[in-house]
Amino acid sequence: MKRLTLVLLTVAFFAAIVTGQRPRSTEFRNYPAAVEKTTAKSIDFKRSPGASTYRTRLRNALKEGVNFAGRYILTGWGCGTGCSHSAVIDARTGRVYFPDELMGVSVWFGESDYDNETYKFRKNSRLLIIHGTPGPDIENAPQRKQGTYYYEWRANRLRLIKFVPDKSTPNV
Predict the structure, then answer these.
(1) Which residues, listed in sequence order, are joined to residue 68 by a DSSP beta bridge?
(2) Residues with Cβ within 8 Å of residue 98, at least 6 apart in sequence
(3) Structural domain range at position 40
(4) Minimal CA–CA distance to 99: which of 139, 140, 69, 65?
(5) How far is CA 130 from the centre of its chain?
(6) Mind listing the pLDDT tens digit for each residue in 73-120?
(7) Among 30, 61, 84, 138, which is disulfide-ready with 75 (CB 3.0 to 4.6 Å)?
(8) What pLDDT, on the 0 to 100 scale, is given for residue 88?
(9) Residue 18, in any domain of the structure
(10) What value, to the nearest 5°, has the Cα angle with vertex 23 and ends 18 and 25?
């Protein structure tokens, strides 16, 4: 009887570990964020290196209010055909973040099933989905892959959760 109890406890212990390590699905509801109505009075250019280059776009985005991860504003602008730069504004403080993943996002729609929406995000979720190739297009960079990238916004940074390559388009 003791041996059976010990075996059952061991199995239950390992089952709990495996279940606890299972990755969350890539649905917006699994990355909730409480939406705040607060908005900073202005962009914090002093603590946001590079933000002054995009003054007008950032100020206009701040006026539009929170649209991402509860208290942030995700905004972007074009950088050429099939290319966009984006920034994340903390609506509480006015500080601007320029994650590498959002600088020079390129898209090749070609024969893919994409719905022509490069970014998908929600006001009440920390999940950001990018269809394309994130990150700066730097010479001598390793091959960047086209596909769908799932990121979680946490501690003012993007953390890659999952990548699904797009097999129907060439890699850039």
Answers:
(1) 72
(2) 50, 51, 87, 88
(3) 26-165
(4) 69
(5) 7
(6) 999 998 888 788 999 999 999 999 999 999 988 876 555 555 568 899
(7) 61
(8) 98
(9) no
(10) 135
Does residue 88 lie in a domain region? yes
In DSSP terms, 165 is beta-bridged to 147
CA distance 58 to 107: 23
- Rounded CA-CA distance 72/127 in Å is 12
**Domain-embedded: residue 143:** yes
CB-CB contact of 12 with 20 (8 Å): no
pTM of full prediction above 0.85: no
Q: Can you read off the two tokens belonging to residue 45?
A: 């250019």
Q: What distance lies between CA 120 and its chain's CA centroid?
A: 9
Report how far Cα 159 is from the mean position of its chain's Cα atoms.
Answer: 7
Residue 90 lies in a domain: yes
Q: How, if at all, do strands 83-90 and 103-106 pair?
A: antiparallel
Task: Give the count of domains, the chain.
Answer: 1
DSSP string, 70-118: TTEEEEEEE-STTEEEEEEEETTT--EE--GGGEEEE---TTS---S-S
- 127-132/119-121 β-pairing: antiparallel
Q: What is the largest CA-CA distance in the chain?
A: 74
